[in-house]
Amino acid sequence: MGTRMGKPVAAAAAVACALLAGCVGQPSGGQSETASTSGAATQTATASQSATATSSPSSATPAPDTDETGAPQTGDRVISSAVRQDWGVPATGSPWSIAHEVHPPIAQPPEPALPYLYSIGVGAHPTGESLPYDQISFRFKGAFPGYAVEYVPALVQDGSGATIPMPGTAAVLRVRFNPAQAHTEDGTASTIVSAPAPAVGYPAIASYAGAGDFEGYVTYGVGVGRAGAAGQSQVRVVEVEKVEQGQHLYVVAVQVDRTPWTG
């Protein structure tokens, strides 16, 4: 992701690791930091409770985020898991908008004042409980940010408006978080400690790319499927609040139905 100026930062080496049966992650290549959890997490209980209370109905209880970036540790646990948007197509011009109440600053310096992106994980779930899917998980610290999910004709860089190529994909799914950031408070470095390679290579999630970390917005594009085949596959969004590797995380897991690509 980028700095305050919106310049992209290269993704880290592939690190996602599946821990439950049916999840096929990428090999571990990074390390998760072990640091004390910011007191900001305790300020966001209202947003977390709201996420559970307003979740869309689902045919089954969603599995917790399973695309962890390291082996489980004593004390790791899922605090809550809820479907925020059940299977459907967030069509161009009709985004799914999920709001969370955030009151900056949520922490004192040197912690960022906004929910900040800590890591990204991916995983293939060919035997999902309702539909087989591929997943990309955005893990934040401090709080759940609000976000909007929408298929777009092309991924555009925040600020400059330049088109970001996502070759070989059938469609582009944009996920835009606000309020959020992916840079340190002084703007000199990324807050992302681990992320998979951009070329994911799964049937439903072929790739992903950062498109901005600019004025409280963090934007990503997800390349869906393969060019020349069906385009806008169904999507589901799950939120998980958890403790993982000693970190209090707020996970937005975007799941893409892989059925059109594996039939």
Throw out a few tags for this protein:
263 residues; 5-stranded antiparallel beta sheet; 35% strand; disordered N terminus
* Number of discrete domains: 1
Number of strands: 13
Radius of gyration: 17 Å
Strand content of the residues, in percent? Answer: 25-35%
Write out the strand line-up for the largest beta sheet, numbering strands in chain order.
1-4-5-13-12-2
The largest pleated sheet is described as: 6 strands, antiparallel
Helix content: under 10%
Q: Output the helix-strand order.
A: EHEEEEEEEEEEEEH
In DSSP terms (H or I, runs of 4 or more residues), the helix count works out at 2
Content-based structural category? mainly beta
What's the oligomerization state?
Answer: single chain
CA-to-CA gap between the ends? 34 Å
The outline comes out as globular
The low-confidence runs, each spanning 5 or more residues with pLDDT under 50, are 1-60
Mean pLDDT: 79
Written account of the structure:
- This protein has 2 helices and 13 strands; from the N terminus they run βαββββββββββββα.
- The model is unreliable at 1-60 (pLDDT under 50).
- It is mainly beta.
- A 6-stranded antiparallel sheet has the order 1-4-5-13-12-2, covered by helices on one side.
- It has helices at 45-53, 259-262, and strands at residues 24-25, 77-88, 96-98, 116-125, 133-141, 147-152, 155-156, 163-164, 171-177, 205-214, 217-224, 235-244, 247-257.
- The protein has one domain.
- It is globular.
